[in-house]
Amino acid sequence: MALDLEKLKHIKLTKEQQQYLVVGVVLIAGLGYAYWNFGLKPLARQAVTLREELGKKEENLQKAKDMKRREVEYAERLQRVQLGQQYVARRLPLAAGFTDLAVRVNRIVTTGGMEMMSMVNEAGPNVKSEFEGMQKFMSTVSVVGDFKAVGTLLSRLSGEEAIQYAEDIQITPGDPTWPTGTFRCAIRLVIYSTLGVPR
Question: What is the pLDDT of residues 51-76, one digit of tens each?
Fold first, then answer.
C-alpha cells in the first residue's frame, strides 16, 4: 500500500475543508507550543533546580561526613593528649623545695653505694621551665664511687617517678688514698616537678 504522490497533487479541497485544515494545523502547532512552553519547559527548569539542590545537599552531606570523621579523630587525639598529661602528672612529683630534692637525690645516691660530696642548686634565668604548669630545678651533684655505682645511680635516676635527666657528667680521678677504681663524678641534674597538677 504505497502512497501515490500524484493523486495527492490533484486533490481538490473545498474552501470549508481548507479552513478546517488550517485550523487543525494552527491548533496542533498551538497545542505543541503550549505543551512545550507550559509543560516541558517548567519541568526542565525544575529538573535543573532539583539537580542543583541535590548537588548542594550531596556536598553538604560530604562535608558533614568529613566533619564527623575529623571530630572522631580530634576526640581520639584529645584522649591521647589527656592520657599523656595524666601520665606526666603521675610521673612528676608536686613542687618541692631544694631541700626535699636534695633528700631524695641523697637517698638514691646512698642506696646505690656511693657517697654524696655536695649538691649545688643552680638558680637564674636559664632555670625557668619551658613547660606551662611545671617547675624546673637544676643542680650539680658531686659523688664518689666506681663505674658500677655511677651506672646504678644513673639507672635509678631514670627509674624515679620524676621527669629528670643527667647532663654534663664529669669524671675526675679520686684521691690516692681512696680504694682502686674510685673516682669523683659531677653530674648536672635537670628535674621537673608540677605546680599542683592533680595526680
Answer: 999 999 999 999 999 998 899 899 99
In angstroms, the CA 190 to CA 76 distance is 32
The whole-number pLDDT of residue 97 equals 67
Query: CB neighbours of 129 closer than 8 A, spacing ≥ 6?
Result: 135, 136, 192
What nine digits make up the cell of 131? 613547660
- Just give the CATH number of 98-194: 3.30.70.60
Q: How confident is the model at residue 93 (pLDDT cuts 50, 70, 90)?
A: low
Tell me the whole-structure pTM to 2 decimals.
0.48
CA 138 to chain centre: 32
